[in-house]
Structures are given as structure tokens and as C-alpha cells.
Amino acid sequence: AVLPMAALVQRAAADDYGSVAVPALVLVAPDDRVVDPAATRRVMAGWGAPVRIEEVQVAPGDDPYHHVLAG
Fold it and tell me: How far is CA 71 from CA 25, 26, 27, 50, 68, in A?
């Protein structure tokens, strides 16, 4: 499962999102150790539609890696 995930991450990082026409709401934890918040911001800076980024703080006792799962 690790190799397919790594390939997917590489593909997603290389894609151009400038033609996306769907607005996005993105929840970012500044201390996330699973997904680099700076990388998320870089991708969303190139998003073609309006973007709203909300920083969330992971509460004590929640995920020890400060990863936000939403959907």
C-alpha cells in the first residue's frame, strides 16, 4: 500500500489545478505530521476557483500526529 500511495502523492503534487472550477474549503492543522501544511497551501495557491483555508487546532487526546480528517 505504501508504493501506490507514494505514486499517488507524486502525481498529485505534479498536477496543475489552475483549471479547477469548484471552490474548496480546506481544513489545515499547522502541526500536522502526516500532510505538510505548507505543501497544502502551495497546492491551494494554484487552485483555479475560490479557496477558503481554515486552520484548526487538534485537541489534546485527538490524533497524536495532529492530522485532520474531514469529509
Answer: 11, 10, 10, 19, 10
